[in-house]
Write a structure and sequence with these properties.
245 residues; ten-stranded mixed beta sheet; 10 strands
Length: 245
């Protein structure tokens, strides 16, 4: 693994426990929405249409850690399709940490989709170790609701658009308080607009994308002041954590 070090005086490489300590929530019972993104230095969320082209070993380590710390991972259907999500399975050694902490071996996967253009035979559903949740709208096609209900809990959380506050409230009612949102940009923007973002974990990739790649958030008109909690470094990659001010 690429060494990850705090940008502090005499910072030394963090081991697995040290990385967990940097990101672990202070109170697992307090409902918290954490968003995780990666962006190039010039602000693009993708390279050639995918976020994977920006990442590396250090980003993958933090990505896996954040998933391992979460009760539920939330993503928009477009992101799930574009990034090729499969079944949400926690890798070792985070699975060992979850077991020692009294958590289920794997977090729950939750998908936001108004149209329900999702295939119930996809591994995300068919091989899920925990039953997924799908948040949709009143106008969702009835046949799609019936089809997906066989492999997931389908929850109406809005009239024409999925309401982030209703999503968070439903997850909290299920005891899923540590919510990790992985985007995409429109879903992130909707959560900012709703005042529902508590943390942003942003990896800054040492790359100038220079094209027409999207920003990490789109459509937001509700600025949210943040405070820098930490900066970690791995070679020229910066791993930042921001919390609501």
């Amino acid at each position: 693994m690429t060494d990850i070090v705090p940008l502090e005086p005499s910072g030394s490489a963090l081991d697995h426990a040290g990385i967990i300590a940097r990101y672990a929530p202070a109170d697992r019972g307090r409902t918290t929405v954490r968003v995780n993104f990666i962006a190039s230095v010039d602000g693009s969320a993708t390279v050639s249409g995918l976020s994977g082209g920006l990442g590396g070993d250090a980003d993958k380590t933090v990505f896996d850690t954040l998933r391992g710390l979460a009760d539920v991972v939330l993503a928009a259907a477009g992101t799930v399709r574009k990034e090729g999500y499969g079944a949400l399975v926690t890798p070792e050694p985070m699975r060992e940490w979850r077991s020692a902490t009294g958590l289920a071996a794997h977090p729950v996967m939750a998908v936001v989709s108004g149209s329900l253009d999702l295939d119930p035979d996809d591994d995300l559903f068919a091989k899920a170790p925990e039953r997924p949740i799908v948040y949709t709208v009143e106008s969702a096609p009835a046949d799609a609701v019936e089809r997906l209900a066989e492999v997931a809990d389908v929850v109406v959380a809005g009239d024409e658009q999925v309401d982030p506050e209703r999503v968070v409230a439903d997850l909290a009612a299920r005891g899923l308080h540590q919510i990790l949102c992985e985007g995409g940009p429109s879903l992130f923007g909707a959560f900012i607009d709703a005042g529902a973002v508590d943390e942003l974990c942003l990896t800054v990739s040492p790359l100038l994308e220079g094209g027409a790649g999207p920003r990490i958030a789109r459509g937001s008109a509700a600025p949210t002041p943040l405070r820098l909690a930490h900066v970690l470094a791995a070679d020229s990659v910066l791993l930042t954590r921001w919390v609501r001010a």
